[in-house]
From TrEMBL:
Protein name as catalogued: BIG2 domain-containing protein
SUPFAM superfamilies: Invasin/intimin cell-adhesion fragments (SSF49373)
Domain BIG2, first and last residues per copy: 216-261
InterPro entries tied to this protein: Big_2 (IPR003343), Invasin/intimin_cell_adhesion (IPR008964)
Length: 383
């Protein structure tokens, strides 16, 4: 008598399921390769205990997938095919830029039937989740992919949950397009930005096996903090240290790995922290400094030190402050006018000869002078 495999799969789902995120919500699922041979498209089979729908996003092992097939429901679990989103594309609506995770193909097949489709040269298909933002995309909309401009020629909404765009190779708008960063009409509506990302937990930390450390990041644009920035995290060795899309680090096995945080839509803007998984915790102090990277001559600004022990901020430690010119010349082109164990107020020198030169603010941990951090600050004109 042949036993159905479905009850067995449901058992494995309960006992061996992996943590994933479905549209940002943590769930448990079984995921396996859809085919035995390696192919250009990363396609997998997902089985989840919670309802899933075509067009749902699945975050799995530091990658984002899109559910592309109909859903098979056996009463206990839900099964479907997922494909890895291989690109993000930016769509610009008169200066309102939104980025979308997408499946982009030069040679395509039907996502629901797997049928090969012949496509003209210079044409691509883009598969997007069907939502309020993607429904605003219109014919003739321009965007970039792999530093090439494309124009939307057709929009297909026949598959529930997915929008398919048929796009042709377009032309570059030299005055306005940011080709390097794959953004159409960027400079038509936007001034240039200077982004910076800092992992607030310091440069290194320890975490106990199976314990969790929350990473916090500060992202600035021209020195001004950005609220709710989109950040992508990755681990150099997920078998030692894992991290999810919310910045939660978990120690898996004794060892170490580098955690990298990148500004999702400007991946060259990034920060890193060394994480060591340990069995016994010891003190590992690090310092981070917050404050504007520029100061106008003759003006004052404040800086704050944050002290972390194994990535968690502590408040029983203090720092000593000092200031020097970046080139170690004298006189120093600024002064510390007030300071405490956690903050300092610095005033830039008044000479116009200091404009566009650099001074360095240093914080030294009082209890351990080997732990220091420097912040380079540029002196700017008053005007």
């Amino acid at each position: 008598m042949t036993r159905s495999i479905e009850p067995m799969m449901d058992f494995f789902l309960r006992e061996k399921g992996e943590l994933i995120h479905i549209n940002g919500v943590q769930q448990t699922a079984l995921i396996r390769d859809a085919v035995d041979k390696i192919s250009a498209a990363d396609e997998k089979i997902i089985r989840a205990a919670t309802p899933i729908q075509t067009g749902d996003f699945i975050d799995y092992r530091n990658a984002r997938y899109l559910i592309t097939s109909e859903i098979d429901h056996n009463g206990q679990s839900y099964r479907s095919r997922i494909r890895k989103c291989n690109y993000t594309i930016a769509v610009n609506w008169n200066g309102n830029v939104k980025w979308f995770d997408a499946i982009v193909e030069g040679k395509s097949f039907s996502v629901d039937a797997g049928i090969m489709i012949s496509m003209p040269e210079g044409t691509i298909h883009v598969y997007l989740q069907d939502n309020a933002d993607t429904r605003a995309i219109t014919l003739s909309q321009r965007f970039y992919n792999t530093h090439q401009p494309f124009k939307v020629e057709g929009i297909d909404r026949t598959v529930n949950g997915i929008i398919k765009l048929s796009c042709s190779l377009g032309s570059i708008s030299t005055p306005y397009d940011d080709v390097e960063n794959n953004m159409a009409d960027r400079w038509k509506y936007e001034i240039s930005h200077t982004y910076a990302l800092t992992i607030d937990n310091g440069s290194s930390a320890n975490v106990m096996i199976h314990d969790i450390l929350q990473l916090n990041c500060t992202v600035t644009d021209d020195g001004d903090p950005i609220s709710n920035p989109s950040i992508t995290f990755s681990s150099s060795d997920p078998n030692m240290v894992s991290i999810d899309n919310q910045g939660k680090v978990m120690g898996i096995e004794v060892g170490e790995a580098t955690i990298t945080a990148k500004l999702t839509y400007h991946p060259n803007v990034q920060g890193a922290i060394e994480i060591k998984t340990v069995e016994t915790m010891t003190h590992t102090y690090t310092i981070s400094l917050t404050g504007n990277p520029t100061i106008k001559i003759g003006q004052s600004t404040s800086y704050t030190s944050h002290i972390y022990d194994n990535g968690t901020e502590v408040f029983d430690q203090s720092v000593q402050w000092s200031l020097r010119n970046q080139d170690n010349s004298t006189p120093i082109m600024g002064s510390i006018t007030a300071s405490t164990g956690n903050s300092a107020t610095m005033k830039g020198g008044s000479s116009s000869g200091y404009i566009n030169k650099y001074i360095v603010l240093t914080a030294v941990l009082t209890s351990d002078p080997t732990i220091t951090l420097e912040k380079t600050i540029q002196l700017k004109s008053l005007f």
